[in-house]
């Protein structure tokens, strides 16, 4: 509605509701959003894991600086804690607030901002823990003689056949199609084999010559 004093649109609370399946009823969310004073509500009937939710994209496009995006619960907005933090951070950069009714979080207040900053710290802490565990697992695996990463697909006879095809003039892509393997996997296998062969040659030529092992004809 227009503000008679400034002749500008008043700042608004925009609601967003989501249910996962078609047979779920969003009435509870819609009633809560209406009671919270939302002037407009966008809806989605989709899994929270989807990133291209039409209703959410429309809600994010609708809000402007000074508005507040309101949801019934945090899990209605974000598919995960990192996604939730990313979305709210993007809103904050646009000068848009965020409010969750059930969790009583409101980033337009100092307390609400503090809570969300704590969420962000917890999200970063979780990512750091995952990275630390991954590194520790790779070190432990290496100590046992195992290497991390995906198991090679192109090995043995299949790799030799691929090299023969390429030597006869086929491209790596054509060879991959004939062998029914991925082009990237074949490139990787050929490159790794070349690296190993060069390493063997390098060790051979750099090894010291053992004169005592040479049998002289006299």
Q: What's the CATH class label of the domain at 13-109? A: Alpha Beta
Please compute the radius of gyration using only Cα atoms: 30 Å
Shape: elongated
CATH fold descriptor of the domain at 13-109: Rossmann fold
CATH superfamily of the domain at 13-109: Resolvase, N-terminal catalytic domain
Q: Hey, roughly how much beta strand do the residues contain?
A: 5-15%
Order of helices and strands: EHEHEHEEHHHH
Task: Specify the helix fraction band.
Answer: 40-55%
Q: Low-confidence runs (pLDDT<50, min 5 residues)?
A: 1-9
Overall number of strands = 5
Strands side by side in the biggest sheet:
2-1-3-4-5
Largest sheet: 5 strands, mixed
* CATH architectural grouping of the domain at 13-109: 3-Layer(aba) Sandwich
- If you average the pLDDT, what whole number results? 78
Distance between the termini: 110 Å
Continuous helix count: 7
Query: What would you call the structural class?
Result: alpha/beta
Explain what this protein looks like in three dimensions.
Among the domains are: 13-109, 3-Layer(aba) Sandwich (Rossmann fold), CATH 3.40.50; 156-200. 50% of the residues lie in helices and 11% in strands. The protein contains 7 helices and 5 strands, in the order βαβαβαββαααα. It has helices spanning 27-35, 54-62, 81-93, 110-143, 156-167, 172-179, 183-206; strands at 13-19, 40-45, 68-71, 97-100, 105-106. The chain has a 5-stranded mixed sheet with strand order 2-1-3-4-5, with helices on both faces. Helix 5 (156-167) crosses helix 6. The longest helix is centred in the middle third of the chain and has 34 residues, at 110-143. It starts with 12 loop residues before the first strand and ends in a 12-residue tail after the last helix. The model is unreliable at 1-9 (pLDDT under 50).
């Amino acid at each position: 509605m227009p503000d008679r004093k400034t002749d500008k649109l008043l700042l608004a609370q925009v609601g967003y509701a989501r249910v996962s399946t078609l047979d779920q009823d969003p009435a509870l969310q819609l009633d809560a959003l209406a009671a919270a004073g939302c002037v407009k509500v966008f809806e989605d009937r989709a899994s929270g894991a989807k990133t291209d939710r039409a209703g959410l994209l429309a809600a994010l496009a609708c809000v402007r600086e000074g508005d507040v995006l309101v949801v019934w619960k945090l899990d209605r907005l974000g598919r995960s804690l990192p996604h939730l933090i990313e979305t709210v951070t993007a809103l904050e950069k646009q000068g848009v607030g965020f409010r969750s009714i059930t969790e009583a979080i409101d980033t337009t207040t100092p307390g609400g901002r503090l809570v969300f900053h704590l969420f962000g710290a917890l999200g970063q802490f979780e990512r750091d823990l995952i990275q630390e565990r991954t590194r520790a697992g790779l070190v432990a695996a290496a100590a046992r003689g195992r290497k991390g990463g995906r198991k090679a697909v192109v090995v043995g006879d299949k790799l030799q056949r691929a090299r023969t095809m390429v030597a006869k003039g086929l491209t790596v892509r054509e060879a991959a199609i004939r062998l029914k393997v991925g082009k990237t996997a074949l490139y990787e296998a050929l490159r790794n084999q070349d690296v190993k062969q060069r390493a063997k040659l390098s060790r051979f030529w750099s090894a010291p010559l053992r004169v005592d092992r040479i049998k002289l004809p006299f």
